[in-house]
From TrEMBL:
Domain of life the protein comes from: Bacteria
Family: Belongs to the cytochrome P450 family.
Keyword flag Magnesium: no
Protein name per UniProt: Cytochrome P450
Listed cofactors: heme
Single Gene Ontology MF annotation: monooxygenase activity
CDD domains, sorted: CYP142-like
InterPro entries for the chain: Cyt_P450, Cyt_P450_B, Cyt_P450_CS, Cyt_P450_sf
Pfam family, one: p450
Keywords: Heme, Iron, Metal-binding, Monooxygenase, Oxidoreductase
Amino acid sequence: MGEALRRPTSIDVSNPRLYQDDIWRPLFAQLRRDDPVHYCETSAYGPYWSVTRYDDIFAVELDHQNYSSASELGGIQIAEYPKGQERQSFIRIDPPGHTAQRRTVAPIVAPSNLANLEALIRQRTATVLDALPRNETFDWAERVSVDLTNMMLATLFDFPAEDRAKLTWWSDVAIANVESPDAVVHSEAERTTELVKMGEYFRKLWDARVDAPPTFDLISMLAHSEATRNLEPREFIGTIGLLIVGGNDTTRNSMSAGLMALCENPAQFELLRARRELIPNLVSETIRYHTPVLHMRRTARNDVELAGRQIRKGDKVVMWYISGNRDEDKIERADEFIIDRAKPRQHLAFGAGIHRCVGDRLAEQQLRILWEEVLARDLRFELMGPPQRLYSNFIRGIRSLPVRIVN
C-alpha cells in the first residue's frame, strides 16, 4: 500500500513564487480535499510530504518521538542548509536539550514581564503613530511595523538603540531566499559572512555581561544559564538568529497584514471601531488569516502512518500552517477575515506542542496595543497600492505596504 500512495505528482507547493504572488489558495484547497497528506516526489528541495489539514498538522506537532526538528536530520525548513553550515538552536533540537535551552529564555516573555513592558510598548506605539504623515502616501511596513519591532527587540536584548536597524537587517539575512533577485544576500556564503558579523557583535555584548551580575535581558540570561553559557560558535549564531527572527517576523508582518485586511474588509474595520473589545479577537484573526510562518518541517525518525499514508524513516514532512489555518472542516468560513469569530485563538500560526512560539503572548500584546492606539486616534487608512511580498516559502513577509491616512 505504501508504494502506491507515494506516487509522483505535479502538486508542488514549495515554490516561493506562490507566496510572493499570493496564488497559493487553490493548490492547498485541492490538497486538503483530495490528498491531505501528500507526497511530492520532485521539487527544488527534493521529495517531501505536505501535511495540509489542521488536525494532521497538530498530530505531527505533538509527536516529537516520530517527527524530529533536529538540525542534524534536516532542521525545520523544507530547504536544508549545506552540510557544515547548519545553524543549530533550540528550535532545531529535540528534547531534552530543547527543553533546557527554551526554559532559559522563557522568563523574558512571562506574564509578569509582559505587564512591565506594557507602558513602554504603548509609549513607543503612540510616538510612532503620532509621527506619521497625514494625507500623503507612506510605507506602513517601514514606518510602523519595522520600527516598532526592532525597538522591542533592542529592549529584549538590551541592545544599543542607535544600532537597532542591524537587528532588522540580520533578521532579513537569516530568512532570505538567496535565489530571489531582490534578496539581501545572494549566496549561502554571503549569508554566513553576514551572520558571522552578527555573532561577533553579540559576542562583545555577551562577554561584557557574562562577567557582570545577571540582568533581565536575553543576552544575560543566555550567558548565565548552565544550558546555554557554553554554546559552540555555530550554535551561538543560530540561537541569536532564532531569537531575532522569532521576535521580529511574526509581529512585523502581522502589523502590516492586519492593516491590509482591515482596509480590504471595511465592514470589519467599522465593527472594530464600534466594538473595541474585539481587539484581542482581531489580533488572533490577523495572525490566523495571514499566517506569518508558512510552514515548519520535521524529519521522520521512524516508519510511521499518518492519515493512511505510510511515511518512511528519513522522509521530509512539511506542516503547511498556511493550509491548516484555512481548513474549512476545522474553522468555519476559513477563507474569510472575521474578527468576531467564536474561537479566534483556534489557529496554528504559533505552532503547537513543545515548539510552540515562546514569544506568542508578547507578539499578541504588541499587536493589541497598536490597534488600541490606532482606534484611540480614530485613524482611517486607504491602501495606495499592492503590498510588496517576500519571495519565500517559509516566511509570509510583507516588505512594503503603501498607505495614506485620510483624516
